[in-house]
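Co-fold these.
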Amino acid sequence: MTTPRLVAHFFRHEYGRLVATLSRRVGPGYIEDVEDAVQSALMTALETWTIAGLPDNPPAWLFRVAHNNLMGELRRRKGRRRILEQNVREDIGTLESGPEIFLAGEVPDDLLRMLFVCCDDAIPVESQLVLALKTLCGFSIREIALRLFASEDNVYKRLGRARSCLRELPLRPEELTGEQYSSRLPAIHKILYLVFTEGYLSSHAEMAVRRELCDEAIRLATILAEHPAGQAPETFALLALMHLHAARMTARQDSSGGLLLLEEQERGLWDQQGIRVGLEWLAKSAQGDSFSRYHAEAGIAAEHCLAPSFQETRWDKVVECYALLERIAPSAIHKLNRAVAVAEWQGPAEGLAVLKGFEPPTWLAGSYIWAAVLADLHRRCGNAHTANCYRDVACKSAPTPAVKELLQRRLQIGRPG
Amino acid sequence: MPKQKYLCIQRSQSGKSAKPSPAQMEEMYAKFHAWKEKFQKNIVDMGGKLGSGKVVTSKGETDGPFVEAKEVVGGFMIVSAESLEEAMEVARECPGVVMPGSSVEVREIHTS
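Predicted complex below.
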């Protein structure tokens, strides 16, 4: 009378799989009905399985129940409509053909198709992100709000926008052409990158919560990379950068959850297996004639992973990658990062020289990152007064106590630079 | 296995409760798993969920008084224990009980 364990994230991932499979059959316009049907199938599973034990094939069991739920609901509605307005024919697609034997090989295809649907350019990017987290990763609105530091209302609105766009889509996802697949690839990369960075850069207190988003991004990117529609150097570079960052994630925190600087991190804690996988994807990404921002970012991450110590980092290579990144994806934050790398390579004065005459955009000028870098560089150049001013600004705008603590430690005057 | 058997009647508030998310269901399933392992020797019959029904009286059949009740009986199970206290301990730790608004009634079953 034991309850066998299910694979990690079984319910969340089955949710994504079922929503993807059923939406393909009835069309993404019915996504809300599909989600309701899947939700109640999971609920039935939870109640039944805890009492009677697991069925032989849990995914197939779930599929059958969700399929029947959906079909029942759509039939009911169709019946009601027929009474209201006679002779109305509602096309509910291939659903009437009944549940087929569930083929495992179908799964990645369906998930991927759903990912392409989520990234339709008719849907605003911030809604795409929420839609992907909801439908593909199985997070609830409250869970998404928590992870994106947004209000539930805001998440709900973004999701609503995505759903109404989906209802107006002329195409069923299986009708996407090869050309549409490849033209949407950049949008997919962007969404996966966003999911990853939401987790990686999040200041959420719980490591597990942050790690979850990174793992989801890696899971979906791997499915993409293994499918002909997604096989592109950019996809491989994206996966490389995710693995190379994720491998060092746990080492970014001390035992009490405080943030650690790169130079303070215990390199022995880095996940060597993860680094190996990342480097394999990086090698695979070096093909064709495209050099994307993901290539540059993966290159930087690889330099850090391969350096035996902070001091022995090949800062010249890091600087080179940042310069490339700046050219491909111009952003003030890349310039700032380059300045930091130059300071490590050629000294703090050279680092400051990179930023000389540069007017940061308001979003950056007001952030703690800008002030912290300037405070640090000035401190190391011996400009105590300027350093102090910037330090105060940085500490005041620190988003979390952990960041503030880190800044105070790093920006201490008199600390050897 | 302890001799005495107890009937556990699970009740919950009628009306809609918030639907758990897939992540919460994962957690509930895991908790249930742990609970079943811990009290393996006490659980005689996992019982089940109760569906809708009718009440039969000498005057005929009705939909029963229970549809009007604020609390509905959702399920039952049978546990064995040395004492009511022990049976209550099993029920208290059951993950189904911790849901807000739900309760479990534990009654001794007399067979002799």
